[in-house]
Amino acid sequence: MTEDINGVLNAGDVPGLYKIEDAEEIMTCGRKRCQQNGIPVTKMNMNAQYIISVRQNIHVIFAMSPMGETF
Predict the structure, then answer these.
(1) Comparing C-alpha atoms, which of 18, 19, 21, 20 is closest to residue 54?
(2) Residue 5 region, left (φ>0) first, then alpha (ψ -120 to 50), else beta?
(3) CB of 28 within 8 A of CB of 35?
(4) What is the DSSP string of 47-70?
(5) pLDDT tens digits for 8-47?
(6) How far is CA 34 from its chain centroid?
(7) pLDDT of residue 63
């Protein structure tokens, strides 16, 4: 679990997080950002713009429950 949180904090993405059905919505978001920023609309650029959007808007809350009396 902490590896996934580390991935979100460092890269803004977790491999295998999205389903194939989500790809169209992700590409639509990326396409809009590419057009707004004057960047060529390629699959790589659309994905990169989506990740930039995620990084700018992500909020992470990491809470752990103590286990046992020693904590």
Answers:
(1) 18
(2) alpha
(3) no
(4) HHHHHHHHHHH----------STT
(5) 777 777 777 788 888 888 888 889 999 999 999 998 999 8
(6) 17
(7) 77
Tokens found for residue 17: 């997080």
pLDDT of residue 35: 93
Helix (H, G, I), strand (E, B) or coil at 1: coil
60 touches 14 (CB < 8 A): no
Helix (H, G, I), strand (E, B) or coil at 19: coil
Please give the pLDDT value at position 71: 58
Rounded to whole angstroms, how far apart are CA atoms 59 and 53? 12
